[in-house]
Specification:
The protein is an alpha/beta fold. Helices cover about 40% and strands about 20% of the residues. Helix 1 runs parallel beside helix 2, helix 6 packs parallel to helix 8 and helix 11 runs antiparallel to helix 12. It binds iron/sulfur cluster.
Length: about 375
Amino acid sequence: MVKGLYVHIPFCSKRCPYCDFYSLVESPVSPEEYVDILLKEADLYRDTPTRLETLYLGGGTPSRLRPEDLSRIVEGLSRVFDLSSVEEVTVECNPEDYGKEEFRKLRDAGFTRVSLGVQSFTEKGLSVLGRTHTPQRAIEAVLSAMSSDLSVNVDLIYGYPGQEPGDLEADLKVIEYLRPDHVSAYLLTPYEGTPLGSKILTGELKAPDEDRIRDLHDLLWRRLKDIGYVRYEISNWAKPGKECKHNFLYWTMEEFVGLGVSAWGFLESVRYGNVRNIKAYVDSVLSGRRPVGVSVKLSEEDKFEEWIMLRLRLRTGIPENLVPDHMREFFEPAEEGLAIKEEFMILANEITADLMVYNSIGRR
Ligand code: SF4
């Protein structure tokens, strides 16, 4: 049963140098036309059984659209799907796009949550990450959204070239002052083919070394804990009860429909990805075909591995019998068995890989 809808809005004002999402600065399709096409695509899923709990508009930059267009998406979706049991409607926004008036319009249109792509509250961080807003603008955006009765997530990136603990400290001081409901903090991934990623991978720019990353990670989780946030996933912290319900659907392998160019979905054990080309996307929808570019049916074994991988990201943990004795030092008791200790969450990928090998060997 489908519990979530994800809608991808591909427009951006400029490409950030670290980003590998599908997004368009110039588009042959206007935002208004894109909304029309999206709703036509939604119609292709009309017969899919749903009991929807969450709706998430991500990107790209959804706030490149006017609040009226975002409202039109929600309203159009409500004509295709039953949204009466939806508890959380999130939209990703960039700090430079909206002020109080726009946030109020979003709240009036039924949005409950805004995820702000702040990335850093320091001039240095914003400059390395190629963002166009200022620290002041980011603070204003958080305050405006909060005062509009929206639950606010602040996205941060750490581990960028040149970042010192003092820079992260500065970000966390602002978080302590603003106290948004939710904080996501992602370790910068240097993706091949992105301008910043290529510079790091070729050595032209130096990313923080392992020790520095560990220091930054320690500072991050300890300080957020002191301020009162609960870490519930490797990169996500929330005030109690303010966790993101939509992302939980991904991590617990619930079904969701992905709409929009390059969107991902998960239906009947199939992970599917829409085409990453706006023209191909539009042509497919207009000819009445779901614009799916790739799809993979997960076997029981795939599902088990994915389940372990996702569960290890969460603080709820995995059953004890899946963790061999020689790895127990990395784990601590959790609600559903054992979870990776907070200080070792930075090593989650390595721990997960070892655990997968152990468990696939153990099951042969
Ligand atoms: S990081 Fe966000 S705003 Fe920047 S290019 Fe990627 S999707 Fe667009």
